[in-house]
Specification:
Layout: E1 8-14, H1 19-33, E2 39-43, E3 46-53, E4 56-63, E5 68-73, H2 77-84, E6 89-92, H3 104-110, H4 117-120, E7 127-130, E8 139-146, E9 151-158, E10 161-168, E11 172-174
Antiparallel strand pairs: 1-5, 1-6, 2-5, 3-4, 7-8, 7-11, 8-9, 9-10
Length: 175
């Protein structure tokens, strides 16, 4: 099989609660069939959530998109067949079960790819605009940057007060 194009992100629908199993099955399928050039990455986005139970706080990982797995691959009929016949997969998200690749702005908004700090080209004191989330379209000034956590602290002026907010790299763009 000759590689003709660059890999793109697609969305796979799974049975509820089977996301991690599907991710492991896809990794095993890629290894066993030597498809590393075709299927580049498989992801189940999770976020940390603090839950209080019996007076004790506990950090729990929750899936951001239950019943969905994201896969970065080069589409072909053979790869489609291999992925859709993986245990736990109900099909691709798209018309008639045929995959539609995610657009670049969707990939950025979903936070699927790790943004390199150097690619951001921002420094503390720079003006930025929030491009997703509850504070979308607000402007602010960067106070600090945490490259290892992929977070920036932005001071946003709301209702006449400066409010520091912690955001992901993917949620801001330089003005």
């Amino acid at each position: 099989m000759a590689i003709k194009e660059s890999p793109q992100w697609y969305v796979i629908h799974t049975y509820s609660g089977y996301e991690s199993m599907v991710e492991n099955n896809l990794h095993n399928m890629v290894e066993n069939n030597g498809l590393q050039d075709w299927i580049v990455e498989v992801k189940v986005p999770v976020e940390d959530d603090i839950v209080e139970k019996n007076g004790k706080r506990k950090v729990v990982q929750r899936k951001k998109f239950p019943s969905y797995v994201f896969i970065k691959m080069i589409y072909s009929n053979h790869i489609w067949f291999m992925v859709t016949n993986t245990r736990g997969v109900t099909g691709f998200v798209g018309p008639a079960g045929r995959p539609l690749p995610l657009r670049d702005d969707e990939v950025k908004r979903l936070g699927l790819e790790v943004i390199d700090f150097e690619d951001l080209d921002i420094k503390p004191g720079a003006n930025v605009r929030v491009i997703s989330g509850a504070l979308e379209n607000f402007d602010g000034v960067i106070e600090s940057i945490s490259a290892e956590r992929q977070k920036v602290k932005v001071v946003i002026s709301m209702f006449g007060r400066d409010t520091p907010v912690e955001l992901d790299f993917s949620q801001v763009e330089k003005l």
